[in-house]
Request: fold
Amino acid sequence: EVQLVESGGVVVQPGGSLRLSCAASGFTFDDYAMHWVRQAPGKGLEWVSLISWDGGSTYYADSVKGRFTISRDNSKNSLYLQMNSLRAEDTALYYCAKDKVEMATITYFDYWGQGTLVTVSS
Amino acid sequence: DIQMTQSPSSVSASVGDRVTITCRASQGISSWLAWYQQKPGKAPKLLIYAASSLQSGVPSRFSGSGSGTDFTLTISSLQPEDFATYYCQQANSFPQFGQGTRLEIK
Reply:
């Protein structure tokens, strides 16, 4: 059974930093691209970042480019999101999501974690 | 950037009704489109990918169609568990979601 379990969400002050983690199991982690998708309270879904299956390519939404860094450790079946210079508008539930197609870069999200809540507030 | 526009933003329907939700891309995306269902407090669930392919385990009352810029999600006979918010997502370039369609009980 595929499982994605996020952690690391807390309340942080504007300008602060945070690292989110996602522990994956139930599939061959290093065969799939992985994504972070966020959802502000009461709002829709926003794609944040993706990392290729081998970690060699990373991409970001314009809203987080230069502030967030995605990474993965395939030996630990883990995905990370380093979040710096946090703003109030980064407040959201952050989901990690698995790409559907093996060895692809961007397709669809076939498995999602339960999300971890990041609140940016003074 | 490719913009995705869903309509309607919300719809009220009854159990047994046929419901159609549309999604329009600001430029052609071939068949690179998915549909997701999200219930309150839960993660989204993939229903349809590649515009018309049913994800494993999803009931056959869900179907998708379209290509290019115009797409539809149809639920042939609404069940109580189908009341939720639905999102489209394009995968032709960096993922972009529609704003969502809330399906409510009439």
